[in-house]
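Morning F.,

Quick status update on the modeling queue. The single chain you submitted on Monday has been processed. Sequence for confirmation:
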Amino acid sequence: MSGTNGAPIAIDGLSHFYGSGELRKQILFDVSTQIEAGEIVIVTGPSGSGKTTLLTLIGALRSAQQGSLRVLGQELRDASAATLESVRKQIGYIFQSHNLIQALTARQNVEMALRLHPYRSAAELRERAIAMLRAVGLGERIEHYPKQLSGGQRQRVAIARALSAQPRILLADEPTASLDKQSGREVVDRIQTLAREQGVPVLLVTHDNRILDVADRIVHLEDGRLSSFQEAVRASHQQMMSLLAQNLRKEDLHRRVEALSDAEFGELLDEVTGQAQRFVESVALASSEAFRSMLDQALFAFTYKIGLLCRAERASLFLVDRERSELWLRVAQEEGGRALDARLPIGTGIAGRVARSGQAERVSDAYADPDFNQEVDRATGFTTRSLLTIPLRDASGVFAVAQLLNRLDGRPFDADDEKRFQQFADSVGVILQGWWRMAQSASRAPEESRA
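Structure tokens below.
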């Protein structure tokens, strides 16, 4: 890190209080940190821990009381109203509720933020607002009013508004709290991409474990005291391991998966993903037995669930590792069967064909297909008759291929099976992407440790 004097945000011994006299309550205790230019920092912590208070102090929405808080070179302790206003004009804010003006269109809402810079002409304001809305994927919604937009689209307007004036700092308070998984992911991806393109530091307060991967650094605020995320997780390590031991016993997995609806299953994966993400971000457990067990459970649960969903004898999941040009095969067999773990060349078999084309395929006679790899059947003692193979995509392309083998009623898979599986995969796809990122780290950790 650079020296404190050069950091856009430099905090040293910051404390803050609410109330006075006997009602005086300390909210922040001796907080010290700094955020460098271009750095994305996430603040986690329970409700009431002081996260929003810290954000509003850094955002010059109130004057600091004790310690030192320098933002963009200005000391905010006991700062004048004029100093606070000067700093505020250089900061972009994104709030949970987006705070759009309902009577204005998306373009007009963005233009309102730009009017803080009167040196721009009306034509320049309009051009800039339109460009920012297009940048966040709202080119077809420029003249729509907030009530005509979805929650994710309204939040993207808020992002465009925050970034339109080219702020020197971006502050976001729970920007994904009211959004579904897909919209929430889109919001943070836009924050990450656009903020880094403009080179501004980002401070993001969140409870959302699904977005921790965008951070360069994670800090934890609890009871008004700031610690590294590593320290926070280490402090509760034993408790978390105990919970994992209770909740993720392999012998209970079949029963739990069978009992859950599709929506409940998505929540289960989300819960496990959050726990694992904390580990990976904090103590580099990618190579540990504990993390690998969690990874196995999540991938096994996903493959077993899709097998149940489409009444298949077996479901397989191939993770696409493009750096190694491999397919990583995970197989969930019938209850009581063992799971396979194998790596194959990326062009192997029908799964490799689907990974390349990105198109789902139904094969009614597997052994008649020249690309079918009969070695897998010979290795497992299984006989494959029909197949349904479906690609799973993210922004960069196909990241996994799921394959269903043999319908229980003996008939080939049909279009309804494909539709049913695709709907389910879409609902949990973001979670599976997160697990694949962690899986790649886990698979490479042993090599890195030997290097």
